[in-house]
Q: What sequence folds into this?
């Protein structure tokens, strides 16, 4: 932000100008949802990503509110910038734009990454993991992230993303007279009293087969049936394959 305030006098002016033009857009040219208006966010109504966007924006706001403390405690970091303290020099919206611009360009190299980023002179080069033919696309992978995180961080989604998933939270009723017995059954089957189920692309049927026994356990009201399950082995409440879509 300080470099941006220097305008064309900044060494980084061309790069900052490009970041501003991109506005956190990913490869599909979609502006980061962190910069959407309230009315635009309503398009995400019903999707968990909307709450994630709100939470991320709240986190950015907290970062902004802590800038002045950083400025006072680590003043040596800002000696080259003869400007006022951050929150007086820059409004929150400018800070958020800068945050999103940087976030959308961050590269996370996994520990087993075969490609490398190297600095050569005044340029940065991506050294790829194998020989490529002319006009063959080079794909820079963002790691095993669901589409919600790709959209939030980079402004794009992958329609064939094998790591995309929907998280469904289910729980046993703590006011159920048989809660303790049901929790024991759940634990015996590797589940918790509050359990998250991940529905992944192409594996919907398998996840449903895992969820249904847990839900049926929660709805059992006959104490004898619970005792029968506790004394048995195997699945909590076997599900007929005919019941699955």
A:
């Amino acid at each position: 932000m300080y470099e941006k305030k220097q305008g064309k006098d900044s060494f980084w002016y061309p790069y900052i100008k490009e970041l501003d033009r991109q506005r956190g857009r990913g490869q599909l040219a979609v502006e980061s949802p962190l910069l959407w208006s309230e009315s635009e966010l309503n398009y995400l109504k019903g999707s968990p990503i909307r709450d994630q966007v709100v939470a991320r924006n709240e986190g950015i706001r907290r970062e902004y509110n802590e800038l002045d403390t950083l400025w006072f405690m680590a003043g040596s970091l800002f000696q080259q910038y003869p400007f006022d303290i951050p929150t007086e020099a820059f409004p929150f919206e400018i800070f958020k734009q800068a945050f999103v611009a940087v976030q959308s360009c961050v590269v996370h190299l996994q520990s087993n990454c075969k490609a490398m980023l190297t600095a050569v002179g005044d340029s940065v080069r991506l050294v790829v993991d194998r020989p490529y033919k002319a006009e063959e696309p080079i794909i820079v992978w963002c790691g095993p992230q669901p589409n919600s995180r790709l959209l939030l961080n980079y402004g794009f989604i992958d329609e064939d993303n094998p790591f995309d998933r929907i998280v469904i939270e289910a729980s046993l009723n703590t006011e159920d007279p048989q809660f303790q017995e049901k929790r024991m059954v759940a634990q015996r089957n590797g589940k918790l009293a509050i359990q998250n189920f991940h529905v992944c692309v192409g594996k919907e049927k398998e996840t449903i087969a895992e969820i249904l026994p847990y839900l049926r356990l929660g709805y059992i009201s006959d104490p004898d049936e619970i005792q029968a399950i506790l004394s048995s082995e195997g699945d909590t409440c076997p599900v007929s394959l005919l019941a699955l879509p």
